[in-house]
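JOB MANIFEST
job_type = single_chain_structure
chain_count = 1
residues = 284
[input]
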Amino acid sequence: MKEDIKTTSAPWKQIANMWNTYFTPPSRISKDEDEKYKEWLKEIKGERMKALVLGVTPEIREALIELGYETICIDINKEMILAMDSVLRMKNPNEVVINEDWLKNSLKDNDFDVVAGDCVLSNVKWQERDKLLLEIKRVLKPSGIFITRFFSIPREKPFRTINEVLEHFSKKEPNYRSALELVFELQIFCYNPEDHKGTFSEPKKVLEKLRVGDKFNFESKNLNKILDIVWNFWCEKYINKIYYYPYRDEEEERIEKFFEILKIYEAKDNDYSKITPMYFLKSL
């Protein structure tokens, strides 16, 4: 896929900078999860293996390069493709990137040994989950493998009130990771199981009630700094993004209609691994 870099450089560079700065685990693959992706991909590696990457996650693409897979990536967002290309540590001249929709594309039936992605299902509406899983199954060879992480919501929320959330984060160091974790906790706190949505607009409504004038003024300076990051980035620049999160048992029940769950892994360096587990799946 060829792009006119001169006309697209500003937006994709901005996305790349955001990716490197604001996107930390659990939103992004942790070091332990990266190693598990490599381990599983190495485990199934054979001669002339062909892989499809849903999205353009750098860590997955680099693992496939190291292991010698023939790789095709598919993503509907041209700017994201360019942004992720710019942060790759190594590039595969034989990798093909297709700018198409995961749900409607020109990929051939039974063409891939493995499909890999990171938290791809959360980008698809709940009512379209089956369609995506069927599409993954369609492009995989018989008994092909699907490897991914899933985002889910715990049935028992870890915090009962917003004050409990704030008390917990007042003890954390102010950085981009603690800010993202606070966003995640606010999404869980505001979660409505009827629509499965994980939005940034609902957490913003909660935070609006906590602001004094144009700032946060809690006793904990660390908490104020964390809230400032959340407010200025996640509740402003990322406000229109919607994810779709089910409960973990809901997700697994739907997956098992199309795939056999062979392995589940919860990362040791991800405090949210119970609700962001990795799955090694075989097509039925």
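[summary]
The chain has two domains: 5-152+246-283, 162-244.
The first helix runs from residue 5 to 21.
exit_status = 0
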